[in-house]
Design brief:
2 copies of one chain form a homodimer. Chain A is α+β, with helices and mostly antiparallel strands and about 140 residues long. Chain A binds a DNA duplex (25 and 25 nucleotides) through helix 3.
Chain lengths: ~140, ~140
DNA sequence: CTTGATGCAAAGACTTTGCATTCAG
DNA sequence: CTGAATGCAAAGTCTTTGCATCAAG
């Protein structure tokens, strides 16, 4: 068996794409990454952004937050943490507190054993998303 | 302000679509619902399935599990509960144990207060998804 | 050189929408 | 009758893919 990515060549565009995703906590979609890089790399193609982000996801360098308003959103942070998705503006926020993390870790560990032994499910990871309104949208709604 | 749905007419197709979504725990997509009903209702259109499911979601009769492998999946169960998505076959399972529910409810309640008072986030609901392999896919992988 | 990486445009997959028709109240 | 509900097909969005070209090793 070969080492994943061993037969891969360097690519400035690839590096730039990964760096851009990791540089923000806005949980961007492919189009955003493309727009951000386009000025610096005029001959960049959206297809390349898609191709590389998919690579990153496969090798675990980037995670998917899920599809929001029809567009897949990514995260350069790959350690386990929750997200908050605003139903008003669609923005995604990292959302974890020490208590939350501890609580969830505990629950997940317990479940991993329970699930595997009792039902045969093999848990890989957990995704928790809180939905609601961000401070700005909440205020806007109240004012309106 | 008018009552939501007050100016709505009855529709056998609409009833059938909702009933079908609520009749299963397979967390179906629009296409599946369409396929299931097509034999009984030959003149059913996929567009009608989409239109009605969107209605149900707006009024809270149906929930979205999220987009899995490019297709949005729905749930006729709208009470809070977690899901398990198999990365192998894409099937979605309801996944909750008494402990899990209690634990999550507690966490969510605490967070609702914390979040709102400290940061201004208004939490509406939580979505938790466990990803991994279902018993069958886990066994298949081991065997292979 | 040899093969991976990319641009471009076409193709795909899923969902929404416009319009004429049908059906419920 | 009047307006909601639907079928059908066209249109939309986001994402993937084929192919010729460019570039890294």
């Amino acid at each position: 068996m070969s080492i994943p990515g061993a037969d891969r060549k360097h690519s400035k565009k690839r590096d730039a794409i990964l760096a851009k995703v990791q540089s923000t906590d806005s949980h961007p979609g492919a189009q955003w990454v493309y727009d951000q890089l386009k000025s610096d790399i005029p001959d960049l193609s959206l297809a390349t952004v898609y191709r590389n982000i998919n690579l990153f996801r496969q090798e675990g360098a980037v995670a998917s937050v899920g599809v929001i308003d029809g567009e897949e959103r990514f995260d350069g942070r790959v350690d386990p943490h929750s997200h908050f998705v605003c139903g008003g503006c669609g923005r995604v926020f990292d959302y974890d507190t020490p208590e939350l993390s501890a609580e969830f870790s505990k629950v997940l560990e317990n479940l991993k054993d329970l699930a595997y032994t009792q039902e045969g499910f093999v848990i890989d990871y957990r995704k928790t998303v809180f939905n609601g309104l961000c401070p700005e949208c909440a205020k806007a709604k109240t004012t309106a």
